[in-house]
Amino acid sequence: MNDQLSAESEAETGEIELGEWRRVSPLTIAAQGVRMLGSAIIPAGVVLFGAASQREMLGQVSAYAVPILLLIIAANIVPAWLGWYRLRYRIGTSDVRLEQGIISRSARSVPYERIQDVSLEQKLIARLLGLVEVKFETGAGGKEELKLSLVTEAEGERLRETVRALVEGADEGAAAAKPDAAGEAETRTALQPEGRLLFAMGTGRLLTFGLFSFSLVIFAVILGAVQQLEFLLPFDVWDYAERYIQDEGYFEAGKYIGGMDMAARIIGILYLVLTVVVVGMLSGIAKTFVRDWEFRLDRTAKGFRRRRGLLTKTDVVMPVHRVQALVVSTGIIRRRFGWHGLSFISLAQDSGKANHEVAPFAKMYEIAPIAREAGFELPDGAEEWRRPSPNYYFDRTLIAALFVTVIGILVFTAAGTSAGQLEPGMFVIAGAVVAIIVLIVVRGYFLWRYDRHALDPAQVLSRRGWLAPQVKIANRVKLHSVEISQGPLAKWRGYCRLHFGMAGGRFSFDGLALEDARKLRAAVLGSIASVDYAQLPR
Amino acid sequence: MDAEPLTQLDPSYTTVMRIEGLLTTLPFIIGAGVLSFAEVVPAWAPGIPVLILAILLIGVLPMKRYRSRGYHMAADRLRVVKGVMFHADTVVPFSRVQHLDVEQGPLERAFGIARLILHTAGTHNASVTLPGLPFDDAKAMREDIRQHVKRESL
């Protein structure tokens, strides 16, 4: 086969030669075939199963089953092979090139100056085969980056080292004229290449994290699966539910419950609640373990290096100077126990999310050194925190409460006209409306008390949120524009929204008093305008 | 909003907006005509909403929009103000401008005005548009800002 040339040179030299066209690992075909088969085999099985369950069809189907399966396999392997055959890449002297496409070809070239970072990702199948996906991130927002899937682990590591060295060279060349680049280069080389551990999560920590990541998504998943695969079940779920109501099954169930004494009822309810809580916690733990297994954050010469994952293993490096802002987030319960999470907002993306989680579950004393390493200072109480305009919270609470009231009245009258008289169910509706309104008012009050913002000499800080409060810290000189906007209501009531243009994320303040917003804007603009963007370390 | 006086846009920007309003109402006028001819409803009925739309889009809004818009060019930043109902006041420091565009549509060309567009690296406000500038002014401003970007980069 023709692949011999690239496979051999790879095996023999183990070096990446510049300007040489290469192919990804041939095992990619297997990985892709397995993945596509996996998605094709379930429907195929279902069709065969469905046909076979009708007795008279059994004879006919069994004769065709093997050819059909072979055809499915061939239909998966051939495009995978063609795709592999028609894909080639080149690590050139000034750019990375990738040509792909079976019939319509696409050629992409990414110059080294534009490569933000090279990251490696291993999904389950790739991991079993010892392959990695190499991503060259450009900060273009996910879709338009250059991806090599898949190459062998050793090749991935080599590619990363080679390209990083080339990117570094390109950066230094561009920065040669700048006076402040030299100092940075010095600190870079001064660090050991191996890096030092900043943060890691052991099994105990993961377990605690999982307990706090209580999630009821599993119930939605089960419900969704039932809906998708109900034809495989021996009984019809919706029929069953319908019959349950038609035959007044609930009446019997009610009688059954009515027959129990108070203690049994309470135990029953407790049992139900406990089951939901336990399942929620278990699914939270499972999710956390799969995502954050062997979480490890290192400070290397190039930046922050994060490794994590049980099934899909990822290895991401974030250059320090590309961190635009910090987000310290927490939850309303975990805050009581002193647990917080730290993530970076940067130009590159982290599996679709704009924020890079660097310490998802940590105590403040663990977060502070990481923040300092990234060049940010956590708030220490010396800042002058200011509150947004109370009018904003009053208006929002009023509008939300009015909305709920109107809906409640509509539902109440609808129920009243259909029932013709007052029924106990209608008091439940009224009670629910009142409860929701109380909740909205409490929330509005809490937010007004809690939300604040501050300005220190180098940073802008914002603290927001109710159930998941977070503190955002942005570097003043890394902001790009400032906008003050007002709707009609805001204009009348004297508040506004302040928006900062930030690369890779959102940074806005809702409901600031106009005077405050102007003061913030003037201060931030002063620091932005004094530093040119091109002089910022990229 | 702030103390510094805003520079008004070119008055022919209003005319351009009026013509754009007319173009927007044209399909509605045709639709209303068809409805009147078809005699589904009384012949005068479709005229009323179209008339209201025309007064708003051609008569009232262009003037209001023109009055609400303005800009201020300081030594190191450009401030763009706009919005009748939803007010927005954006400031872009020249040192954060990535690249610049001067654009002209066919209507704008006929009246000799242009749009100046400033692109920044931010996700929000990635491009800030200032419409209704006299074409020569727009070009001059572009050169001015470009000089600034160049000088500070060196």
From TrEMBL, chain B:
Domain of life: Bacteria
UniProt keyword annotations, A-Z: Membrane, Transmembrane, Transmembrane helix
Residues passing through the membrane, by range: 21-38, 44-63
YdbS-like PH domain residues: 66-143
PANTHER family the record matches: TRANSMEMBRANE PROTEIN-RELATED, UPF0699 TRANSMEMBRANE PROTEIN YDBS
Protein name per UniProt: YdbS-like PH domain-containing protein
The organism's taxonomic lineage, starting at the top: Bacteria, Pseudomonadati, Pseudomonadota, Alphaproteobacteria, Sphingomonadales
